[in-house]
Structures are given as structure tokens and as C-alpha cells.
Design a protein that fits this description.
- The protein has 19 helices and 34 strands.
- The protein is an alpha+beta fold and about 800 residues long.
- It has a seven-stranded mixed beta sheet with strand order 3-7-1-14-11-12-13. A five-stranded mixed beta sheet has the order 9-17-16-15-10, sandwiched between helices. Strands 20-30-31-34 form a four-stranded mixed beta sheet, sandwiched between helices.
Length: about 800
């Protein structure tokens, strides 16, 4: 990746722009990470959960007597028992309710029905087979279209006033202005597509240890959570326990990707079981449990239309969404935005009219809707607009890069108000696209494609796919963004010790992104303390400031901003201390990273000198110490962007395809650690390849999950993953304290459309104009030969 930042600090200090090695990797590569399952407490019991084998059924009876009598079993918990304590249902992060353990009926395969607590995890699992549940099966609904059909069975019949399967309706934009744009359009391009259900499938599954002290009432919950502070508040609301007595401890997390944001029934049951039994209770789910029951992503059925004038300019867009919510509306997203931030679907393009409608439907599938390597529903939005724009270019007979460039928002138009109400902070889309074309030799590939695909006997076709995306991240300003009423600010607390070392405590939570390194680099940039001398702490609600956590690419835009601001607060106080030490006025001092000095002289003091003075020689009237805390409420979101170009080769004999070349140019504003950014982008490009090519979860007509293991749900390995050419441009966010925009998910947002567009471009040589994800070989073959195949 091209380095575009010029570091201001030395390599030893390791501030912004340095690709320093990750501090946390020393313990990880030596097997010294501490994950949830490494935690063993005295007297700890183990819990296993009985899950429904069917997708929809009334529970006639549950017989737990044989399981309860099994040697080593301490207790068996059912929904009826929880109901006695008003704990059978809990709120979701979207303001719906979700069963903790089923009482009336089960609503998806894998739903939690009962739990066994035993002295050994294997005894707990064995005892599950001794619980006998009599199910009265009901018809299963496995798509939003079925949910809307006349006579569809009511899934949420326990909800008062619920007469249909609609979870929500929502819209954005200006319908009348959009209708007017379409009325004057010279051409209308339409696309119907489904972004299939997928799963974050982190390496470490979800789990919790509930440890309730029966004497003091102290509740300590070890948990795989991306948002420990918010979870603590939710637990207090659900259980009625005093929040000051609840402590959430999150150890190292073996990947999250949005999957570890929600509150899962297993967390609640383990804690309640500990409360009732008086001993710690551990629950760790299996891989199949994780895939069939925890937070999914995507599953959007999308209809899109573009209105285009006689000059090939886009003048309007319509989008209609049917969102498959599963059995409970449990999306982890801001309250105000029922369909997440899908209305960013106008993308990188300059047009004045758009209207978006969305309807969420209950189905007999697991709930979720998490921000899987993306901001809230932004991946789906980007996919729709980039597929639409590519389809428009093909129908108009225009090169897709030229069509995009003609319709891009220009650099001088920023800040830019989109047709759906976003204020884009900055961008330079033309430069990113031009760099991607140069990086991949776009014109050269087009020439080779023309020669190869022009042969009517060619059995291998070249396709070139383009995607130029804009993401919206950094949720978010408290005017518009909250989850369950909790405003989406975030926090940082910083203390410089007398010896000049420092500790930084964060409200956000790392899950493998390198926070211990990058956040230390922000402090190093602002104060000149070497990043290696800064300890970064997180994941302990008793010892970190309140924050909303890490998901939807908000760590750097919000938590990173809080870190920069609190560092500057400390530097302001340090200036006063330096003036005292140098016997000069503050106005006479200059600053360079790590040192104050008197203007025009070589007299100065280091930040370490100042830190020592804060505890030993501070001026009269000044409070001792050198520390502070800041809660950052962002004035706006940030808008990373990029352009990706993929070259594929499709075998017309069997429908297989492979990537021949791939260029990705990202602009995430100022990059704190370019090496870490490159790693995150590579991971996102790999995930985008997997989504386009192999990775999805589907269901049969009875609601059985197909994708409940890694034989059916394919995760890319080094063998399948193509190589990527990476480039970068830098357009700083004007309102972010260090100009950063965030990058964790951009590659996942932008790349799926590029891969699919490339395959469609290849098939265009044989008259095929559309294919849906995942682009599996049998679907490609069917499209080529006009054969209808099962997805």
C-alpha cells in the first residue's frame, strides 16, 4: 500500500503514520492471550442449552425429570421457571422483545428452550438428551414474501395488537421529487436482487460466565462482548439488579465482526443460574449453535431503480427493501433508523432526488441483523447502488468507469448534502478511481478482454467489475443516534504517571483490530510519549469510562477522537506546568512532539519532565496530577470511500470463475498505522470475495438451517483467497480531531459488488445481463445456458 501520511514523530515515539508492530501480538503469538474459555473460577459450574430442532411449533409440554436426576446435574432451567421471576423475555437492541427461554412456542430452529447446569460441561450436554419436549409443529415462514402473503401464519402472536408479520416500516428521501425525476427520465434502469443471509462466524464463539456473590450481591459477568458498558445497562434493566453491583469483564476477543454486540439468552440464563445457585456458571456455545442462533447479517431483498437523463446523468433513485428480520427484531443499530443507514444508497453520485422505503418482516429464522464488517446496513446499500450503476452503464453502452466519473460528486462540492439527508464531509472520488485504473492497468485489461471474448469459440471469458463506494461510519452524534436511548458518544480516560509513562482507558472494545497499538499511537502523536510506554485498557466496566463499544467502524471515528481530545486537554495543562518550570509565560512556549521550549532558544522541558512536576512541583493553585477524561459526541459521521476493480475469468464449461487481478484504493482519511489498515482491508476484501463466491446461509421449506457448520457455510482460506493490489488516497475528515475516518469495514462494503459486476461483465459476452449472489458455478452455468437451477 502506498504510504500517504508523513509522520511528525520519530519511529521511537511511533505516532500517527508509523507502521509500528502491534503491541498485543507479543502475547498472542506466544499463546498468552486470555479468552473467555481460559477463565476458571473456584466452584464453577457449566451450562448447556437445549435448542429447538424445529422452526415453528407450539410447546405442549417439557419434561425435565430425567435430566434433573442425572448424576452431576445441579439444575435444569425452563422458560416457565424464568417467567416466575419475570425473566422469560428480554428487550432487544431494536426495542422489540425476545424470548430468553421459550414458553409458549418456538419461532426458529435453534431457539433456546431449556438449560442444564452441571458440574462438568460434558455432563451438561449429555443431560440435554434427557429433556423431552412435545412440539405441535406449525407452518414455517422462511422469506419476507411468505410473511406478507395472505393467510400467512402469525409468528409473533404473543405481542398485543400484532396482527401481521410486519416488524417495522420506514422511509427516507423525498417521494414527490423522486417521482418528478422519474417522470422526466430518458431511461429507467431497474434491478431486483437479494443480498443473502450471512454470519460473522468469529473464530471464538459467544459465551459468558455469571458469577453472583450471594452475600454481597456483586454480579461479575465475564463475557465476549463488543459493548460491555451498554450490556451492563441492559442487564440492569432486564434483571432489576443495581447497576453499580454489575461488573462486565471482557477478555481478549477472538473476533467479533458485529456478532458479539447483542445480548443473547445464554448470557442472561448463565447469570440468573448463578444468582439462584450461588456459584459461578459458565456457558460457551458450539460452532453450530453460533451459526444457527446468534446475530446474522444481510438478508435484504432489494428493488432498485435509476432515472437517467438524455446526457447519461443520474437524476433520481428509488429503492424498496424487504428485510428478513428473523423471529425477533433484534438488529443492533440506532433507534431512529429502522433499516440502519441503508439510505446511504445514493452512494458516491450527485443527484438530487431519492426515495427509499423499507419493511422489516418476521420469519421463522434466527434474529440478528448485526453490522457485520460494515456500518449499519451500509454493505447492502453499497451493493445495490453499485450493481445498479454498472447495469446502467451496460444498458447505455458506456464504459462503467466513465459513467461513474461523469456522475460522481466532485471534490469541490464537499461538504455535500445527499438526496436522503447525509452531509458527506469530504471526498475525492475521481482520484481514487483513476488510481485504481492505473494500479490494475485498466485499459490493458479491456484490450485483452475484447480480444478474448470476441472469439465466438472462447470457452473462458474475461470480466471486469468496478465498484466505487461511499461508507458512513462513526455513529454517532447524540442528536440522531442512540441504542435503547443510550446516546452513541464514546470516551477516553488518560493519565500520565510521574515517570512519564501513561495509561489510557477506553469505552470502546478491541476484538483484534489492534487498539492497544493504534490508540497508543494517537497519544504518542499528541503528547510525544513513546507508544510503547502507553498501556491501553478496555473491557472492564469498573475501570474504564462509559462508552457504547466497538461495531459499525466507530472505534477510531469516535473513540479515537475522544483519545485525541483528552490528550490535548492534558497537553494544555502540561503547557502551564512547562511555563512554571521554565519561568516563562505560556505564550512564549512552542511545542514539538514530546517537548515544550522557549521560542527562539534551546531552553525546554520534555513531557516526562512535565509529568514528574505534575506530582512533585506543580505551581500554587494548580491541582496536582496529569490526567483527564473526555466523552466525544461527534458533530457528524465520517465518510470513507474507495474504488475497487476486479478482473475475473469465467469458464463457460462448468461455470467456475477465478480472480485474475484485483486493485483496491481506499480513502479512510488519516491512517494511524498503515500496516494495520492494510491488514484490515485485506480481510475485508477476502470477506467480500467469500460473499460473492461461497458464503451464505439458506433454509429449506421447513425452516431447517442449511449453513450450520463449516462444511455447509464456507469460510475462505488462503487457498481460495486471491491476491490484492492495494492503493490509498488521503482526504482527511475536516471535523475529526486527527482527520481519521475509519476503515475497518470499507473493503467488505465495496468489494462484493465489484466481484459480481466482473462476472456479469464476462457473461455479457453471451447475452446474460444479471446474476445474483452468491455467484456459484451452477448458477453461472445455468445463466449461460438458460437452465433454471436451484440456488
Amino acid at each position: 500500500m502506498t504510504t500517504v501520511e508523513t509522520p511528525r514523530t520519530s519511529v521511537e515515539v511511533g505516532g500517527i503514520g508509523h507502521s509500528v508492530k502491534r503491541k498485543e501480538d507479543d502475547r498472542f503469538i506466544q499463546g498468552a492471550g486470555r479468552y473467555l474459555d481460559d477463565v476458571v473460577l473456584p466452584g464453577m459450574l457449566h451450562m448447556a442449552i437445549l435448542r429447538s430442532p424445529v422452526a415453528h411449533a407450539r410447546i405442549v409440554s417439557i419434561d425435565t425429570s430425567e435430566a434433573a436426576a442425572m448424576e452431576g446435574v445441579v439444575a435444569v432451567v425452563t422458560g416457565a421457571m424464568l417467567a416466575e421471576h419475570n425473566l422469560a423475555w428480554m428487550p432487544t437492541l431494536s426495542g422489540d422483545t425476545q424470548a430468553v427461554l421459550a414458553t409458549d412456542k418456538v419461532r426458529f430452529q435453534g431457539q433456546e428452550v431449556a438449560a442444564v447446569i452441571a458440574t462438568d460441561p460434558y455432563i451438561a450436554r449429555d443431560a440435554l438428551s434427557l429433556i423431552f419436549v412435545d412440539y405441535d409443529e406449525l407452518p414455517a415462514i422462511t422469506s419476507p414474501q411468505q410473511s406478507l402473503a395472505d393467510g400467512a401464519v402469525l409468528i409473533r402472536d404473543e405481542k398485543e395488537g400484532q396482527t401481521d408479520n410486519v416488524a417495522y416500516t420506514w422511509e427516507a428521501g423525498d417521494e414527490s421529487a423522486t417521482d418528478a425525476a422519474f417522470a422526466r427520465a430518458a431511461k429507467v434502469v431497474t434491478l431486483d436482487t437479494h443480498y443473502p443471509r450471512s454470519h460473522p462466524s468469529p473464530l471464538e464463539t459467544c459465551g459468558a460466565i455469571g458469577d453472583v456473590n450471594p452475600i454481597t450481591g456483586q454480579v461479575t459477568i465475564y463475557m465476549t462482548s463488543q459493548a460491555p458498558h451498554a450490556i451492563r445497562t441492559v442487564f440492569a434493566l432486564v434483571t432489576g439488579l443495581p447497576e453499580e453491583n454489575i461488573r462486565i469483564l471482557t477478555c481478549d476477543i477472538g473476533g467479533g465482526f458485529g456478532n458479539k454486540v447483542p445480548v443473547y439468552p445464554g448470557y442472561v440464563v448463565a447469570t440468573v443460574a448463578s444468582l439462584l445457585i450461588g456459584k459461578p456458571v459458565k456457558w460457551v456455545e458450539s460452532r453450530s449453535e453460533n451459526l444457527i442462533s446468534t446475530g446474522f447479517a444481510r438478508d435484504y431483498h432489494m428493488h432498485g431503480e435509476l432515472a437517467i437523463d438524455e446526457n447519461n446523468r443520474i437524476i433520481g433513485m428509488r429503492a424498496g427493501i424487504l428485510s428478513d428480520q428473523g423471529a425477533f427484531y433484534a438488529d443492533a443499530q440506532p433507534t431512529k433508523f429502522r433499516a440502519g443507514l441503508f439510505h446511504i444508497c445514493t452512494g458516491s453520485y450527485d443527484f438530487a432526488a431519492a426515495h427509499v422505503t423499507a419493511k422489516g418482516l418476521y420469519t421463522n429464522k434466527a434474529p440478528g441483523g448485526v453490522a457485520y464488517r460494515c456500518s449499519f446496513r451500509v454493505t447492502e446499500a453499497s451493493y445495490l447502488i453499485e450493481r445498479l450503476v454498472d447495469k446502467a452503464a451496460h444498458e447505455l453502452g458506456v464504459d462503467p468507469t466513465e459513467f461513474r466519473a461523469a456522475n460522481f460528486i466532485k471534490a469541490e462540492q464537499f461538504p455535500y448534502l445527499s438526496a436522503t439527508g447525509f452531509v458527506y464531509d469530504s471526498g475525492d472520488y475521481h482520484t481514487a478511481l483513476d488510481q485504481a485504473k492505473e494500479l490494475i492497468d485498466y485499459d490493458g485489461w479491456r484490450s485483452r478482454q475484447a480480444a478474448q471474448n470476441g472469439d465466438p469459440n472462447a470457452t473462458k471469458l474475461i470480466g471486469i467489475g468496478v465498484a466505487s463506494f461511499t461508507e458512513v461510519v462513526g455513529a454517532g452524534n447524540s442528536r440522531d443516534f442512540d441504542i435503547l436511548g443510550l446516546k452513541m458518544f464514546d470516551s477516553a480516560e488518560l493519565r500520565a504517571h510521574p515517570t512519564g509513562k501513561a495509561i489510557l482507558k477506553l469505552g470502546v472494545q478491541t476484538q483484534g483490530q489492534g487498539h492497544e497499538t493504534t490508540f497508543a499511537q494517537i497519544v504518542a502523536e499528541e503528547l510525544g510519549i513513546p507508544y510503547s510506554d502507553i498501556k491501553v485498557q478496555y473491557g472492564d466496566t469498573d475501570n474504564t469510562p462509559y462508552g457504547l463499544g466497538t461495531y459499525a467502524s466507530r472505534s477510531t471515528p469516535v473513540g479515537g477522537a475522544a483519545t485525541a481530545v483528552v490528550s490535548r486537554k492534558i497537553r494544555d495543562k502540561a503547557r502551564k506546568l512547562a511555563a512554571h518550570l521554565l519561568e516563562a509565560s505560556e505564550e512564549d512556549l512552542d511545542w514539538e512532539p514530546g517537548r515544550f521550549f522557549v521560542k527562539g532558544t534551546d531552553q525546554g522541558v520534555t513531557i516526562q519532565d512535565v509529568a514528574f512536576a505534575a506530582y512533585t512541583n506543580h505551581p500554587e493553585g494548580m491541582e496536582a496530577g496529569l490526567e483527564g477524561v473526555h466523552y466525544y459526541d461527534p458533530p457528524n459521521m465520517t465518510y470513507p470511500f474507495g474504488s475497487y476493480i476486479v478482473v475475473v475469468e469465467v469458464d463457460t464449461g462448468d461455470g467456475t470463475w477465478k480472480v485474475l487481478d484485483m486493485a483496491a484504493v481506499d480513502d479512510c482519511g488519516i491512517r494511524i498505522n498503515p500496516m494495520i489498515v492494510e491488514g484490515q482491508i485485506t480481510g475485508g476484501l477476502t470477506e467480500g470475495f467469500a460473499k460473492a463466491n461461497m458464503q451464505w446461509i439458506t433454509f429449506d421449506d421447513n425452516g431447517n438451517c442449511i449453513g450450520s457448520n463449516f462444511l455447509d457455510y464456507l469460510v475462505p482460506t488462503a487457498w481460495e483467497t486471491p491476491r490484492f493490489k492495494l492503493g490509498a488516497t488521503t482526504t482527511p475528515s475536516p471535523h475529526h480531531p486527527i482527520g481519521a475516518k475509519g476503515v475497518g469495514e470499507s473493503a467488505t462494503v465495496g468489494s462484493p459488488a465489484a466481484y459480481v459486476n466482473a462476472v456479469v461483465d464476462a457473461l455479457a459476452a453471451r447475452g446474460v445481463d444479471n446474476i445474483d449472489m452468491p455467484v456459484l458455478p451452477h448458477r453461472v452455468w445455468g445463466a449461460l445456458y438458460g437452465v433454471e437451477v436451484s440456488p
